[in-house]
Predict the 3D structure of the following.
Amino acid sequence: MEFFEVIKERHSIRMFKTKNIEKDKLDKLLYVANSAPSAGGLQAYQIFLVSKLALKNELAKAAYGQEFIAQAPVNLVFCSEPLRSARKYGKRGAELYSIQDATISAAYVHLAAVDLELGSVIVGAFDQEVVSRILNLPDRFKPIIILPVGYPAEKPYVTARRKINDLVKEI
């Protein structure tokens, strides 16, 4: 799919078919996640792939009852790794760059999913401590985004966007 078509077709998908994601498509998503730019090329993030139903159910509860998380065949949990970035960039690396790294990688996967006829939604509303406990994460990782991925079972409506001249101010 052409890039601008991907942008046009991109929507937040919150209903998924029960169909599993083929290994080659999942491998492509992970390749894209690994290819995303990061501050200093440090890739100060870690991705946890969750496909076990029990864990997905727990993630959905930790995300304040967002049941589509359990419905998706796969959830990618993007975590920042602040200390990896802090070694080179200090406090700003820990508090910002590592979060940006994880977020950029998730956004790349979100767009790549569209190209592969999959859907996803970037979820940031969850209890970080509970997600860490569910996934038994070492303290060095901080959950930033849960990205449920699967075959869409909906065609969501297009949301209104701000006008470009309202969004961008030339100075």
Summary: Helices lie at 3-9, 23-35, 53-62, 68-71, 82-115, 128-134, 164-167. Residues 83 and 90 are 8 Å apart (CA to CA). The chain has one domain: 3-167. The mean pLDDT is 97.
